[in-house]
Structure formats: C-alpha cells, structure tokens
Amino acid sequence: MNILCSGRGAQELTEAGVLRKWPGRARLIGLQDAAEADIAFVTRDIVWPSTDTWLAPATAAFYDAMLAAPGLRWVHTYASGADRRIYRDLRARGVRVTNSAGANAGAVAQTAVASFLYFARKLHAARDQQLQRAWQPMAHDEVRALHRLDAMVVGWGEIGQRIGAHLSQFGVRCRVLRHSGTPVSHGWPTAGYDAFGQWAASVDWAFFACPLSPETQALFNWRTLDVLRADRPLNIVNVARGPIVDTKALLAAHERGLVRHAHLDVFDTEPLPADDPLWTCPDFLVTPHMAGTSDGNREEVVERFVALLGSFAEDGGGK
Fold first, then answer.
1. Are 221 and 244 in contact (CB under 8 A)?
2. Going by C-beta distance under 8 Å and a sequence separation of 6 or more, which residues neighbour residue 174?
3. What is the largest CA-CA distance in the chain?
4. What is the DSSP string of 283-304?
5. In sequence order, what are the residues at sequence separation of 6 or more whose Cβ sits closer than 8 angstroms to the Cβ of residue 51?
6. Which of 53, 106, 278, 292 is the most buried (most CB within 10 A)?
7. For the chain, how far is it from start to end, CA to CA, in angstroms?
8. Taking a C-beta distance cutoff of 8 angstroms, is the pair 140, 146 a contact?
9. pLDDT digits over 194-248, tens only?
10. What is the pTM of this model?
C-alpha cells in the first residue's frame, strides 16, 4: 500500500503505528514517488492556505500528482466535504474518495451557537459600546429570551444534530430541514429542503449545516425576500458552503429590514475580496472559514483514516 502524503502526514501515520501494523505492506511516499501511489491521504497542511477558488502552488502540485498517479484507487481527505473539483475529477476516473465528516463537528457546531449567542444576547451591541466607551444599559424588552425563539436547522448530519442539541438545551424551539424529509427522533417538525421558503418567515434563526448540492445551492435567494417579514426579521448562520446563500440577496434583505443579523463563515469566493460589502455590514459577523478549527482535529482525522485503511487492507487493497 503506497500512501501518498505530506511530510507531516507521514510523521503522524508513523506515530499512529501504520508501518508497525502493516510491516512490509504499508509505504509512505512523497511527491517524488507519487506515480506509485495506491492511496492518497490529504491532510490540512496540504490544502492550507488554499480555498475552493484558489490553489497555493504546493496544493496544486499535490492535486496534480494525484491526478497523474495511474494506480491511485483511494483518496481520503481531512475535510468534512468532498465537493471540490479535484475530488469530482478523481471520482470520475473511478477513484474512491472518502472524507472526515464529523471529525470537526463539535467545533463547527460550537462556533455556530457562539455566533448565535453573540447576536441573540446583544454582545455585539455591548462590544460597540465598549469601543465607544459608552455605558448604555439595555432594557429587558430589548433582549429576547432564548426560550422564546424559533430556529430552523438546515442539514441533519452530525453538525446539524449537534447544533440542534445545543439550541434545545437553551430552550430554543427547533425544526429541521433535511434531504430525506424523514422526521427526526426529537419529534421536531421536519421537512425536505424545498420547504425552506415556506418556513423562513416562521422562524427567528436559520442555521445552514447542509452539504452543497443542486437542492441546497442558493437555498437563500431572491425569492426568499418575498416571504420574509419585516415584523419578524430572520437571522442566519452559515457554516456549510458559501453558495448555499446568495449574498447579494442576503444584503438586499438586510437593507429592507427582512434579515437582521448574519454570521457567515463560508463564501462564494475565498479569500473574501477586500471590497466585498459583507466586510462593512455592521450587523454581520464575517469569519475566515474557521468554524471547524481546533486542536485535536488532526488526531481525529488520522484515527479515521487508519480505521478505513484497515478495511482497505483486509479487502485486499494492499496486495
């Protein structure tokens, strides 16, 4: 089993016991031997600081090596999703692609709920007052109790489920949109993604934690503005993929008072251009695709890869 990986990835796999577990069968190789690769292990250091729309030279070199490896049969990525073009191209030639969905679910869900609390508990307003050195206590009716809020969780994978669990602990009333539309075990209202427009005006918060697909692309769009209500403006958190929210429509909704706050961690173009109006919207929180960042993530990814590697070897993949 010739495993193409970075230098750091090779060190982590060695420490995880891959060479001891499969002596003489597992071999860790770099770009110089990439043509011999059976497997590729794509760790975060290979991709960073690249984005969905821009590749650093080192990232491009690794991607080119995978595409050029004639015997490559399996690629595992550290990422939760595998919708980047490189993975589509590899699947098109018959390469198996697996991801690390769930490895960073805890961190992503915590980030989503943190930004919810930041706005819902008016901490953003207190921060603005601090910067102005202005002491302006808030009236009770300016801050809504969390148990009086309704939220819609869009996507019911591990991240969506954790977001729902956190919100439920605060007493927030939840409902769920998911691909299947199958009711969730909590008894919460559940529907397919096509119900987004119907439900958007009936909730206070929408959390996007779904995969990017034809069903979810531009789920928030110009038609959404037709159903939103100024007397109950929507707030959104997007920790999924940028194209799920049409940001021009989102900004227009904000200008019309139909959307109050938004936390966006993902964007159509990354890095977000310096002249993008999202940067200067005072009611929005913009973060640099960092929702899943936390120490310990690499170890979790390595553990998942090694477990899958065991199945690969047992199935004869190492012969």
1. no
2. 150, 151, 152, 153, 164, 167, 168, 186, 188
3. 71
4. TEEE--S-TT--TTHHHHHHHH
5. 269, 270, 271, 289
6. 292
7. 7
8. no
9. 999 999 999 999 999 999 999 999 999 999 999 999 999 999 999 999 999 999 9
10. 0.91
